[in-house]
Amino acid sequence: MKSVTGCWPLVVGLIISSFAVLGYAQQKPVALKGGKVLTVSHGIIEHGVLVMSGDKIVAVGQESSTKIPKDARVIDVTGMTVYPGLIDSETNLGLTEISAEDMTNDLVETSEEIMPHMHVYDAFHAESELIPVTRLNGITNAIVAPDSKDTLPGQDSFIQLAGTSSPDMLLVRDIAMPLNFTGDQRRNEPRDKRKFPSTRMGMAAQLRQAFLDAQDYEQHWADYEKKKNEASQKPDDKDKKTPSPPKRDLKLEALLPYLQGKKPIVLAAEEPNDLDAAVSLANEFKLKFILNHISQAQPVLDYVASLKVPVIVGPIYEEPKPYERYDAVYSLPAQLNKRGVKIAFASYDAHNVRNLPYQAGYATAFGLPPDEALKAITLNAAEIWGMADKLGSLDVGKTANVVVANGDPLDVKTDVKQVFIDGQEIPMVSRQTRLRDRYSGH
Amino acid sequence: MKRISILSLFATCVLVIASALAQQPSASSKEILIKNAVVMTVTHGNIQAGSVYIKDGKIAAVGKDVSAPASATIIDAGGKYLTPGIVDSHSHIALDSDVNEATSPVTPQMMMIDAFDYQDKAIYRALAGGVTTSLLLHGSANMIGGQAIVIKHKYGLNRDAMLFPGAPRSIKFASGENPKRVYGSKDQLPSTRMGNFEVQREALVQAQEYMREWSDYDAKVKKGDKDASPPKRDLKMEALADVLKGNLLVQIHCYRADELLTEMAIAKEFGYKVRAFHHALEAYKVADQLAANDVGIATFADWWGYKQEAWDAIPWNAVMSMRKGVRVAIKSDSGDFTRRLNQEAAKTIRYGGATEEEALKMITLNAAWIIGVDNRVGSIEVGKDADLVLWDGYPLSSFGVPSKVFIDGDVYFDRTLPGFGMPYYREGE
User: What residue ranges define each of the domains in chain A, with the CATH number in brackets?
Assistant: First the structure.
């Protein structure tokens, strides 16, 4: 360790000096040499080498047997841990700046509950100060979701936490659609201003109607296309009527990819009864889904496993019911993992996304194997979101989102020394480090 | 003065009730030897393969080789870490939302004991996270909120058995956004920081006058004036007078650097001391001044951005302030964080390079100092209360969780037990 702490300031210096411009200029390959490489996909390499060229990982292997290109800039990371950029499976990054200041919030439209035509990419603020703060802790990718106040609050985007503009950072727009069925979506407060849907029955009826309307809408368009085709096949028919297209409806249109099973619904429920209602609804319309939260579903975990879908679990800091043991939620990831369920973690936050790895770490204290915990914030997340060809592990050909830190990625004591996104060395600077330096007399 | 000292009345009640308790475990007579532990004393380093001998609920011996009578129950720690019980210097659990009497900005006569919901499971969940002592404070709606209580997390006992015997009284002040928002939204004073501080000064001036009336009366009585009639007792003024007389530890919710300075200036103007600033997210900007006034801070490890006055919060605040000589505690302000304050404290190792002992001190001895019970708890030293946590895993990490929690020498939580893991509590009994 001593040699490392000694050499790192030099390394950082090199990085900063070489990092004149945040851009995608052609750079020499970069080789991280001597670190403990957590590949996630194929084990741990104690003394490894990882080579990045352009925005890709081009080599990963043992130090003794991995060729480093002659023109590569070699960074000695002996004693350090090298791991893939972390992925947070639900955040509000880019949708809020200061929680209590409404003008900085674009979290959710609450005038109606069925808002699938809201796209977080339309609000995503690339210059948010929260993003550099977050990536300094090794989080390189995240789902951005609208707040869960609506049953259908809009569609999620999958972002990368670096780039010069929001189009750069929005890797996948409309990657999935949350369907929230936790009870918080009821319009029952304040009591004297209740409106529909003020009960779960209302929520379910409203959702069902929305999907039925979308099916009708789909049918109208299919009918129209059919008529149009028929008309075009009979060019000489004197009596032909040119069919007129149905009126476009953005709301119903937004539901179609989900009704067609092209994209997943992120189905949020907490308690068993909500889970049953939500899953029934999803099955009724043959929706492809991922489960979200289920932090009070301990009695029905075998049922959850039988659904054979991934689960974004937690946050494990949800408080258990008064009649439950203190660790009922802490141990949930381990319980799901034991049943063969693929899990991912999410911060469900914006300012505190940086603490994502500690949640995974804490789950290990309650029985989740450490390698599974790391997977739940890397490869599992990449697989769940259909990004595993590019992200989630240190493999040749994948995007060079790489983190160098002085210890276990899941440990709260571990200091992240350098983050690479798309092979670019991210300046380890945020509004917070600038304040620190200013008041430290630097 | 004829007024009975509330402090002494309070302490007497606690003693009488505690001794009369039927369900109080017989901790006081127990002798326990915890051996083969890494004893993290906080005040004199770590003792590898160390032992702690507990007698009469107190720590009777600490060291590498500790002799205990054969009658003592032996607990082999198997090399696990042993720390002092965690002290949370800012908590609002167990109050059933009765945290703010937000109907007037000055309510020093509000007594938290009257709202203490001692059956709240949050006390148990914090205990399971290693917390043995908490300061339950008023909220921050009011410039002067009310008087706090200090509890030990003896979940399952009755109300008064959970109070920390002899703990000094604390009073909660606030400043900044919360009071001005709460009263501003009702179009009342205060709606600005100017209004905030005027309200605070006004109340203190009234208290000075109240004290003068009483001292005039006392002087007349002393001179033998039989016609002297005592002023009307006013609970609100009485409480503020106790602030001015230094009978209450003043705990101030305050974020911005300029307000930290103003609060210290007002304290100087009226002649009382600020014990600690709570939240104090900009303490790093004025740490020299805080240190010069011996004012502690109870802060978050890395919480930020939830409101404008938390926008300049940085996770280096705790360590930067500590390095300037400020006594720093990491607190929860939350029923969630209080369950894993060890993890929060460990963040100071990562942000700013606190040593293991410095990090641990922020959730033990320094927090105990803020509450005024550092002579009783907060470190593993002979004569202190046997409030201890035996950990599975290393406590200052993501992976440490309490295995056993002792309070006054008795095990109140044991992770290996089924159900809730509480020897003295069964649901429904």
Answer: 1-85+392-442 (2.30.40.10), 86-200+249-387 (3.20.20.140)
